[in-house]
Design goal:
Distance between the termini: 66 Å
Shape: elongated
CATH topology of one domain: Rossmann fold
CATH superfamily of one domain: TolB, N-terminal domain
Helix content: 55-70%
Structural class: alpha/beta
Mean pLDDT: 87
């Protein structure tokens, strides 16, 4: 500080720039001219500071606050997990104050990645005026945490916190940070912080560390990290068998591992069943934890238990109505109008979550409303493409693929090919769902080329799809059509038999495609009708209106009855 004063020519006895504040630190006191643009000023809504001082402002005037990762001052690799762990706990504790709109940590991390990471950029991206910045330094068995609530527009520090103590007391130290914030902001915090902290449900430091490390790996959405994430969560529950959030993390990681196999002829059913069991155990441990119900909903959808999944998701939203993650899971578990409402509400809370547009488009496709589906998909693809341009870590997959199918259903071969190629460029193999959507995009490309009578190019595209999924029956059929081979060869029959044992609902749709390609319209219609009879409520068969290999069934009036049934299910 003395070097800074010397550089500025500032005198401590008569400061023009830096003033010493007793027992607090230092304050910059020179006149500041804001360079905030009109656009930025409009998008960063100033908070009503009366709320922070105990006023009775309406909920819409609650100031929005975001918590950044804490800086590891010493650069100690052994304690690097605390950077996100402390931020997560502080985020949860700030929510208990009840006078702040607290940005979800997932969104904060994304904003930091797709901007230059500066406070101003992150705040602008999140429409938040208040930001918590902090650091920690571990020295042997002790740790010191410092933090500050900053008004990004004025640059003023509204509250400071400094705590230190043994690392074994990290939970209490983190709670003390928000206790000090609350005092300086003039907010009375009700109840006991230790009993309410949603960031952890354990007093075991090893379990907490393993949980934090597991989430960091899981949220990378990198398939290479999933085994490590599962192992971390397993360490967490082994260290503390009553750790509810660790079971939700374990179930989520196992679900992600299953999802990497969901389009295989024989997916990893055992992994999914373990995920369901761990999610149920989390609900058993704490029925009041919204995350437990939301996680259960998510895993039950993959097990086709859609009615129970929707009930679990509704319970999660009832417990935490403004949590965008729970609304996303409700949209995932529900169907028809309920899904559209959930996705719409979620986009109000998190406008940049592109996959919500995919959820909505699925409903429109099932209803046969392809123009509405296309409009929603174009909106979502625009959001996704902006995220990619800004370096976002989680751009959604599937939007360009589905838009390609819709355009192909409208006989626009050229744009369909463009959309399938865009999807292929995004579907990197290490990304969750990357292999699946690379295959789907190649199959779509083959179908579009086949429709355009470019048979050799179509055969090449179908072969590319089969390189990723050798037992993918539609690609086997498409390649046979492109080559002029028999469409009901032994490869397709054998793969379909395996699929029927492991994934009967999907197998019925594939069987309809086999029969349609063979020219057996009655057989195809019977397969589709049987699928709709057997499937639980929800999204089964939603792609029927845009399936390329079912295209010529649209010419048969009996197919209209199938489409009507599918549309009615999506109400």
């Amino acid at each position: 500080m003395s070097e800074l004063r010397e550089a500025l020519g500032d005198e401590p006895s008569a400061p023009q720039y830096i003033k010493t504040v007793a027992r607090r630190g230092y304050r910059f006191i020179a006149e500041v001219t804001s360079s905030t643009t009109e656009d930025t000023a409009e998008r960063i809504k100033p908070p009503v500071f009366g709320v922070l001082r105990g006023g009775d402002s309406p909920a819409d005037d609650e100031p929005t606050i975001a918590v950044m990762d804490f800086t590891n001052v010493a650069g100690d690799a052994e304690s690097s997990w605390l950077a996100a762990g402390i931020a997560e706990t502080v985020t949860g504790d700030l929510r208990t104050l009840g006078r702040l709109r607290v940005v979800d940590r997932w969104r904060v991390s994304e904003a930091a990645r797709r901007t230059d990471g500066s406070l101003e950029r992150v705040a602008q991206d999140l429409h938040a005026r208040l930001v918590v910045v902090g650091s920690y330094q571990r020295n042997g068995p002790r740790v010191r945490i410092t933090a500050r609530v900053v008004d990004v527009v004025s640059g003023e520090a509204l509250a400071d916190a400094k705590v230190d103590g043994p690392i074994d007391a990290i939970f209490a130290l983190q709670d003390q940070v928000v206790e000090q914030f609350a005092r300086e902001l003039g907010v009375v915090r009700p109840g006991s912080p230790a009993a309410r902290s949603p960031a952890r449900e354990t007093a075991n430091l090893d379990a907490y560390r393993a949980f934090c490390e597991g989430w960091l790996r899981l949220e990378s959405l990198d398939v290479r990290e999933l085994p490590h994430a599962i192992a971390a969560f397993e360490r967490a529950v082994a260290a503390d068998p009553q750790y509810t959030l660790a079971y939700t993390g374990l179930a989520s990681a196992e679900l992600a591992r299953y999802e990497t196999t969901r389009s295989d002829a024989e997916p990893a059913a055992g992994v999914l069943h373990r995920a369901v069991g761990h999610a149920r155990h989390a609900v058993h441990l704490d029925d009041s934890l919204a995350e437990a119900h939301a996680t259960l909903a998510f895993v039950l959808v993959s097990d086709w238990r859609t009615e129970e999944a929707a009930a679990a998701a509704r319970r999660a939203v009832a417990l935490e109505p403004d949590n965008w993650r729970h609304l996303f899971r409700l949209g995932h578990a529900s169907w028809g109008d309920e899904r559209l409402r959930a996705a719409g509400r979620m986009l109000q809370l998190y406008p940049d979550f592109a996959f919500a547009h995919f959820q909505m488009a699925m409903v429109h496709v099932a209803r046969g409303h392809l123009h509405e589906a296309e409009a929603v998909l174009r909106q979502g693809a625009a959001v996704q493409d902006r995220q990619i341009g800004r370096g976002g870590r989680y751009p959604a997959l599937g939007l360009h693929w589905l838009l390609g199918l819709v355009r192909l259903a409208e006989d626009d071969h050229d744009e369909a090919l463009q959309e399938f190629d865009r999807e292929r460029a995004l579907a990197e193999p290490h990304r969750l769902y990357g292999r699946e959507y690379a295959m789907a995009a190649l199959f779509g490309r083959g179908a579009a080329l086949l429709r355009a009578h470019r048979d050799a190019d179509a055969a090449e595209a179908f072969a590319g799809a089969l390189q990723r999924y050798p037992d993918h029956v539609p690609a086997i059929l498409g390649r046979a059509l492109a080559r002029g081979d028999a469409a009901d060869g032994p490869g397709a029959t054998k793969a379909l038999d395996v699929l029927a044992r492991a994934r009967p609902i999907e197998a019925a749709l594939v069987r309809a495609q086999v029969e349609a390609v063979r020219g057996d319209v009655r057989g195809a219609l019977d397969a589709l009708g049987g699928m709709l009879d057997a499937a639980p409520p929800g999204f089964a068969g939603w792609t029927i209106p845009v399936e390329p290999l079912l295209r010529h069934l649209h010419e048969d009036e009996r197919f209209g009855a199938v489409l009507t049934r599918l549309s009615d299910r999506a109400r």
